[in-house]
Amino acid sequence: MRLLERDDTGGVRLTEDLPNNKIPPYAILSHTWGPEEVLFKDMTDGTGKNKAGYAKIRFCGDQAWRDGLKFFWVDTCCIDKSDSAELQHALNSMFYWYRSAVKCYVYLADVSTHQHGDGPGWQPAFRKSRWFSRGWTLQELIAPTIVEFFSKEGERLGDKESLEQEIHDITGIPRKAFQGVPLSDFSVAERMRWIEKRDTKYPEDKVYSLFGIFDVHMPVLYGEGRQKALKRLQDKVHEDYLCLAKLWPTDPRDPHVEKERIELAKGGLLADAYRWVF
Fold first, then answer.
1. What is the pTM of this model?
2. Segment holding 239, helix H or strand E
3. Which residues of 170-194 are buried (b: 16+ CB within 10 A; e: fewer)?
4. What are phi and psi of 202, to 5 degrees?
């Protein structure tokens, strides 16, 4: 995982690609892509500051710094998308990266807190924000423990706890899904419905953005189309379900009876089988 590091003068640089056991506490940005996003190449050749998208990077770095974090992650420039192996790894790791972040900052480019006169405030724009209709932002809402929402001016609007009812009304996702309840508590069909009204630039991404929601890892094959990608995902989920179903539970109230039942059902014990297990 590659991070951005902010120094005490406000400067930002990319770290090297860090192994999992060397990743420091970090904040993470959630946003919708717009014109002139800062890419990996822009950061490495020093031209990133000349792009409009750098404002989001500066916002994320400054907010993280205020929260006591010097490292942060932004998808536009922390992934070298020209490296297919790195892109594969990133898309399969995204849910984990968002879940592991100390804080997730949602930057809403289409929500303003600067109102003129006695207008209705930022709430109507919040409900209509493009962020709620994109595919990848589904996992960015659910995975992190702390998700904070900010206007395009960088003013804090609330978090997913204080805005829980509004988010539920907008997305239709059960409130307990925002509260850290295991996603396995929700049926496959229910989780599939969460993505139905969301859009992605590439049709396959509507499926790939569900990897973390179903806790699966799969090859990313752009060009295969949404239906083939969905079939592969459904097959993988079904395969994992069957594997878990074979781990039949035993009755913990009387382990001796259970032990005898298993021995009889399986035709006895294999001599020294426990040594192989150990």
1. 0.84
2. helix 226-245
3. bbebeeebbeeeebeebeeeebbeb
4. -105, 135
Among positive and negative, which fits the CA dihedral 171, 180, 244, 205?
Answer: positive
CA dihedral 186, 98, 105, 123 (to 10 degrees): -20
CA distance 159 to 163: 6
Enclosing H/E stretch for 72: strand 71-73
pLDDT in tens, 166-203: 999 999 999 999 888 999 999 999 999 999 999 999 99
User: Which token pair is 127?
Assistant: 């409900």
CA 260 to chain centre: 45
CA-CA-CA-CA torsion sign (89, 95, 96, 97) = positive
Please state the length of the chain. Answer: 278
**CA–CA dist 214, 236 (Å, integer):** 9
What gap in Å lies between CA 99 and CA 3, rounded to an integer?
15
Block residue for tokens 């804090």: 156
